[in-house]
Amino acid sequence: MRLTEVSGPGGPPERRVADSGLAGPAVPRKVLGERLRRLREAQFISRQQAGEAIRACAVAIERLERGHTGCQERDVTDLLTIYGVTDEIEHATMRELAAQANLPGWWHAYADVVPDWLHTYLGLEQAASVIRGYEVQFVPGLLQTPQYARAVIELGHPGASEAQLQRRVDFRIRRQRILYGRRPPHLWAVIDEAALRRPVGGPGTMRGQLRHLISVLDLPHVTVHVMPFEAGGHAAAGGPVTLLRLPQRELPDVIYLEQLISAAYPAEREDVEYYRHVIDRLVTAAAPAASTPSILRGMLENSQVW
Fold it and tell me: Which of 61, 113, 225, 262 could join 190 in a cystine, given CB atoms 3.0 to 4.6 angstroms apart?
């Protein structure tokens, strides 16, 4: 299933294409929410007033506009009515977006091991054209080997059964298919040296992980920088941060901050800009990407690392 054309406000329609079978509801929700927000603001209608039209609260409208949740087609029709939209093509397009926004993503098959707060990120990850991030403690999930992934998962789920552990590993490796698809995102990661020297899973697992990183750097759409100890303190010392850029031009970048048992999606424009600048500064402070293979090989050859 494909997204149809979505009209930009005051301008001609622009084609927004997304593979719904891959990305699930994330992009339709984002496109739908952004369009509804612009229509509401153009009519100077508050979120409270919009919520009353569909028997919802202002918070529900905010979540809808930010693409965190879908809604029923009849609610979209009611909102378009109070926003003064009469064009039948626009109504049909928005109803189609609402229908796609409620489709399950492939990860719903892993509902037993995927927390609700991760669903939004997964859809965005699958649809992104660019994924930029910084990791301080672990190798990024999209670049982990099954053995390394299992060791990381065991740290967070010490009481899980063998079957549960394997299912979580399978899910993490399944996410990595986006790097080998027809339209892979550009993955641009900064990894702290500490994450590469910490022997997660033991020396054998870590050596395998480093060899995998070296091989994956052959992919033209994967760029990895190492943040060396010698760089000292830096802008993101507090924790990991990920920025996702979607191919739909009208959609803003998304910031994702993962915690141990939750996640945050700062959405205010100034917050997004702040984190974007943080990532830019990290890339500048880190070692050049061209030196990453030699850095990794040096770690493998240094018998004193582990």
Answer: 225
Phi, psi of 233 (to 5 degrees): -70, 155
**The pLDDT of residue 18 is above 50:** no
Six token digits for residue 23: 């990305």
Query: Which domains occur in the chain, in start order?
Result: 5-101 (1.10.260.40), 112-301 (3.30.870)
Integer distance in angstroms from the first to the last C-alpha of the chain?
A: 49
CB 105 within 8 A of CB 122: yes
DSSP assignment letter at 136: S
pLDDT (tens digit, 9 = 90+) per residue, 45-78? 999 999 998 999 999 999 999 888 888 899 999 9
Q: Which long-range contacts (CB under 8 A, 24 or more apart) does 262-266 make?
A: 262/117, 263/117, 263/118, 263/121, 265/66, 265/68, 265/120, 265/121
Q: Work out the mean pLDDT of the chain and round it to a whole number.
A: 88
Of 84, 36, 78, the closest CA to residue 53 belongs to 78
Look up tokens 């582990």; give the residue: 306
Residue 212 corresponds to which amino acid?
Answer: H
Q: Please state, in angstroms and rounded to a whole number, the distance separating the CA atoms of residues 207 and 204.
A: 5
Structural Rg of the chain based on CA atoms: 21
Tens of pLDDT, residue by residue over 149-184, are 999 999 999 999 999 999 999 999 999 999 999 999
